[in-house]
Structure formats: structure tokens, C-alpha cells
Design a protein that fits this description.
single chain; mainly beta; Jelly Rolls; six-stranded antiparallel β-sheet; four-stranded antiparallel β-sheet; 0% helix
């Protein structure tokens, strides 16, 4: 299936009910660009974001069970104010938020796998890692950003995030 991407932040929300590998790619139909959004074994539910160049992309899905997905290209001009309290047990892309300078992200994660918190500016072509840890984690990180943005959390066990 071909999908036209405007360029910029692109989010895939996906669900898989199988027991084997589940992969979701968007591959450029005109060159060698290919972005992997999901690569998990077994059942999966979550959201992942990447910054893509504009153009036509082929949606490629490998799954052994039922699956569903939605491709979003959020383009917000305003967002919710901070502070915000977030929690879940799967990968999420949340926002938009209004960031205004220096901020603190307080994160906890109860799993054995990686936890990543990524600032995803609405008007940029790249994100910034705020947290990137393996295993159980509790900590606080500072970051600076002014503008509209989203937060991507890559975690597969219970996590919390306080944004101030």
C-alpha cells in the first residue's frame, strides 16, 4: 500500500495479535530510504514516531496474526501546557505540548528492557533523547526546548513520566 507523507513527524499506532515477528516499515518508493517503526516478537500494541522526508512510501507489514495500524502526521500549532503526568505500559507518542525553555522530565520504568524518552519537536527533522536507559530506572533529566512538541516514550513495561 502506498502512503503519501508530507514530511516531518510521522506516527504509527499499531496492534498485533500474533506470536511471531511483527515488523512495520515505511519504505520510500523513489529511493533507498526505509524507516523501521516496529520490530517485536509476539503480541504488540503501541505508537512509534520517526521524522520522514516528504514523498510516497510503501507500507510494509510482516505479521503472523491479525494486525491493525494507523499512520498519523500531527501538525499542531498549539499544545497543552506543562506540567503533565503520563503513565502507560507500552510505547506512546503524546502531545502536543507547549514547551517554554528549561524543563525537567522525571521518569520511572519497571521493566528489564530499554526505556527511552524522546523530545519530538513539531517543526524539526530530528528528536532529542531525554532518557535512554536499560532496565529498571528512576531518575530526573533536564532539557531545554521552546515551541510545540511531542514526547515519544519507548518502553514495554510500566512507566511514568512527569514533565515540568
Amino acid at each position: 500500500m502506498e502512503i503519501n507523507i508530507d514530511g516531518g513527524l510521522t506516527v504509527i499506532d499499531a496492534v498485533h495479535s500474533g506470536s511471531s515477528n511483527f515488523q512495520v516499515h515505511l519504505a520510500s518508493s523513489t529511493d533507498d530510504r526505509c524507516e523501521l517503526f516496529v520490530n517485536e516478537i509476539g503480541a504488540y500494541a503501541g505508537e512509534n514516531a520517526r521524522f520522514l522526508e516528504p514523498g510516497a512510501y510503501l507500507l510494509e507489514v510482516e505479521a503472523d496474526g491479525d494486525w491493525w495500524l494507523e499512520v498519523r502526521q500531527p501538525r499542531s500549532t498549539s499544545g497543552a501546557e506543562l506540567p503533565q503526568s503520563l503513565r502507560d505500559d507500552k510505547p506512546r507518542v503524546v502531545g502536543p505540548f507547549e514547551f517554554g525553555g528549561s524543563h525537567t522530565a522525571t521518569c520511572s520504568h519497571r521493566g528489564d528492557r530499554n526505556v527511552q524518552v524522546i523530545l519530538l519537536p513539531a517543526e524539526s527533522q530530528s528528536g532529542e533523547f531525554v532518557v535512554d536507559e536499560i532496565g529498571p530506572y528512576t531518575g530526573e533529566q533536564s532539557f531545554d526546548y521552546t515551541g510545540i512538541g511531542y514526547i515519544g516514550v519507548e518502553a514495554y513495561d510500566e512507566w511514568t513520566l512527569e514533565l515540568e
